[in-house]
Amino acid sequence: MKESARLVGGLWGAIVGDALGVPVEFTSREQRLLDPVIGMRGNGTHQQPPGTWSDDSSLLLITVETLCDGYAPERLAGRFIAWQEHGYWTPHGSVFDIGIATSLAIARMRRGILPEEAGGIDEHDNGNGSLMRILPVALHYRDAPLQVMCSMAHRMSALTHRHPRSRMACGLYCCMAKALLEELTPEHAYLYMITQAALQYTAAPYLAEYPCFTRLLSGKLADIPKDDIASSGYAVHTLEAAIWCLLTSDSFAEAVLKAVNLGDDTDTTGCVTGGLAGITFGINAIPRQWINTLATKEDIEVLFARFAGLESRREDLV
């Protein structure tokens, strides 16, 4: 499979996973067992039409666009503000969902706080609001030394989530994504991430966060029963759930539907899982009907073509 098929597969996979989860966000696992998501649906939690994606994809798309232009913290911050205030990169022209930590961080940026110092630093600021948008960093810096890629993930997380735990979660996710781009199997990519964690996160401030990732880094995540996999908005839960879904699935559709049907923070779990599954199985493994249903699909196509054209040495997209 061409590298570009994995690259754009990851991007489309994240948005598809998000859109699958939007209508059932905050519903329980029991509700999903009774009425499982099997494809794109509308209405539900946010009363949006089928194919509507959330703040997860908005901020991911803004990150893609900013990396196309060359990363500058002020440029990324300005686009975050434009998203919240003017509906920039939203599916229907307005913001219908935003995390508390992200909202507070954008308010700080608006007041003139330096972007990479705007994110919350307290322990309760470890939601998944930076993890959901960090995939483009792994794609953009995949050929850079791993330390550089992780450093950029930490910096870009800090705009909204500056606590070391959130930044470490973003770095670990990027390690996993990088390994999948290099065509490692999910199982070997998982082991690669564990190995790199021991190399990248052995000093302050990350060493103190290691206990929070003990289960993830045990090498035995796939053996954990589904009932013990949490799907809340906590960054560590989301990272565990996404990797667990990938490790226990044999296709893109199985992975993202499994993620969404865990319930609770369905859009973000779907988005983070979809990014990894899209890289693993490639763009052609994503059901075409799901992509075609997405809001502003044509605009997204233009952006992804630009990103892939810059990043994959003008290879064909598929």
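The above is record 1. Record 2 follows with the same two-line structure.
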Amino acid sequence: MQSGMRLLAIVVALALTGPARAQEFPTRPITLVVPLGAGGVMDVISRVLAVRLTERLGKPIVIENRTGGGTVSGAVQVAKAAPDGHTLLNAPSGTLTTNVALYKSLPYDPLADFVPIALTCKVPFVLVVNPALPVRTIPDLVALAKERPLSYGSTGTGTVAHLAAELLKSRTGIEMTHVPYRGVVQSLTDVAAGHVQLAFGSPDSGIGMMREGKVRPIGATSLTRINVLPEVPPLAEAGLPGFEAVSWHLIVAPIATPADIVDKLHIEIKRAMAAPEITRQISDMGLIPIDTPPVAALREFMRNEIALWSELVRQAGIAGSQ
């Protein structure tokens, strides 16, 4: 009888441990690692979110910009951190998807080393062409590509801007030569100068050139219109049904982080990102706010995205090139 009572007491204690732990969390400042440099879109959004979460959780959220290795350095840092919810990673899509195919020996496994917590936004791109080209629609582009060689700029091999063009080639059957640049501004500047004929640019960096007529926008890579460019139709509505090629930001934690802490972070991040001032700021930057799916659905989302982008990397002939 006494042993039975002791067993019951143990079971009750274990059942109460999770809720008590989550209620006490966080016990110290939380580090949110951003694997890109300060001042970029991801950094700005991370800092906006940090202010809101600090208010909600009662502990400071400290942003740490850990650059290097195509976001690999920051990812490894978080993968090896203590799985207690106090070290998180705001990962761009490539960190958790294309890096799997781009690196022959990746020092982390997105599915085995991280637990997803919350999606915060999508990052769309806009297909732009040199305004001197007789191209205003996808059929125009296809026709021109059959008449003369075309080249396109990107923000680097294996980036979403590069793979969006590869997806365009795959969907339309056209051929184009890839010219990688160090950044979106450089690629769009060369489109405007006619050194390359087209590129996929991000709204935050390219909207000025689009509005000034230096480059001509043809369509957005998101399934919905971009708030700051409402006149630009999605490519999915402009001749390429279902076309979507966007980056996204996903906050993750080390894989062994307790489920109750993950759930608490998920709820608080979801609430913070739903604040009208945050969704407005995200939209004004040319991004698309997301009402994040549940944690369980996010893992399946990661699997599907890894499969999609890895296949595009393979089709582009750059798999395992680094």
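The CA atoms of residues 53 and 272 lie 7 Å apart.
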